Automatic annotation (TrEMBL):
Keyword presence, Secreted: yes
Residue span(s) of domain Spondin-like TSP1: 177-229
Domain of life from the UniProt record: Eukaryota
Domain R-spondin Fu-CRD positions: 25-124
Swiss-Prot/TrEMBL keywords: Disulfide bond, Glycoprotein, Secreted, Signal
Protein's UniProt name: R-spondin 3
One Gene Ontology term, aspect cellular component: extracellular region
Any Pfam family hit: Furin-like_2
Record's subcellular location: Secreted
Methyltransferase among keywords: no
Length: 277
């Protein structure tokens, strides 16, 4: 081993004056086989790989994928963590390898909650406020548990025209009840239990076209009633009249039959008295 002077001055190996090698710029000591062994002040010692061989070099700043460590005896270049493409120190990355995303000095395969991956920058970007998962910088996919999702944004309370769906944790349109037109009035029917002979009731209805949501306006009444004059059907009047006539005829026949029986009994009794005298 020999001691190099500055900048490509010849190094003379120990015990031999025939082998001459040149020290690289910045080397304090070097060897013909391994390159720099120590560096000038303020420079960093770095091992370069040349196939299976390693050679020492002295650099003013460590190459990409390494960070500098200073000490009283020697300044060295140390490799960054495996997922880190470049770093400032052991625990602070500045760029990540493909498939990883940078956030606050660390590289993640999957961004933490509330962040979204930016493949172009290989960084985790913060989602919109209240967002737990987002697809784009200003487009949320899933909100925190205490917020409601609507149109890619997260809301503490749903805006006008919307209402919260607690099961889906999102804002849904507020729907009011819709009903159709009234039907025609039905026939006048005698109301059950109504003593008045000619008083009745008519009914009309309408159908629900759209059921309301939980906070929507409820449906109005679907039936209406009004009083009417009950008119008996002609057929019923005829039957009642026929029934009365039949009953009267039956009564007359009964009276006539009774009169005939009395007459016969009287005749028999008179004949019996005449025979006895």
């Amino acid at each position: 081993m020999s001691t190099c002077t500055y900048s490509f001055n010849p190094c003379l190996p120990t015990g031999s004056s025939s082998m001459i090698s040149m020290c690289q710029t910045g080397c304090a000591t070097c060897s013909a086989l391994n390159g720099c062994l120590s560096c000038k002040p303020r420079l960093f010692f770095h091992l370069e790989h040349d196939g299976i061989q390693q050679r020492g070099t002295c650099v003013s700043s460590c190459p990409r994928g390494h960070y500098g460590v200073r000490s009283p005896h020697i300044n060295t270049c140390t490799r960054c963590k495996s997922d880190c493409a470049s770093c400032f120190s052991e625990n602070f990355c500045t760029h990540c390898h493909p498939g990883h995303f940078l956030f606050r000095g660390r590289c993640y395969a999957t961004c933490p909650k509330g962040l979204m991956p930016n493949p172009a920058l290989r960084e985790c970007t913060e989602c919109p406020a209240g967002c737990e998962l987002c697809a784009k910088r200003n487009t949320c996919v899933r909100c925190r548990e205490d917020m409601f999702f609507l149109h890619g944004q997260c809301h503490h309370s749903c805006p006008a025209g919307f209402e919260p769906d607690w099961q889906l944790v999102k804002c849904i349109p507020r729907v009011h009840c819709e009903v159709g037109e009234w039907s025609d009035w039905g026939p006048c029917l005698q109301k059950q239990g109504l003593r008045a002979y000619r008083k009745g009731q008519e009914t009309r209805t309408r159908q629900v076209l759209q059921n309301p949501s939980v906070h929507g306006n409820t449906c109005p009444h679907l039936s209406e009633f009004r009083k009417c004059v009950f008119k008996k059907r002609q057929g019923s009047t005829f039957k009642n009249t026929l029934k009365k006539i039949t009953q009267k005829n039956t009564q007359n026949d009964s009276k006539k039959h009774t009169k005939q029986q009395l007459t016969q009994m009287f005749t028999i009794k008179v004949a019996h008295l005449f025979f006895l005298t």
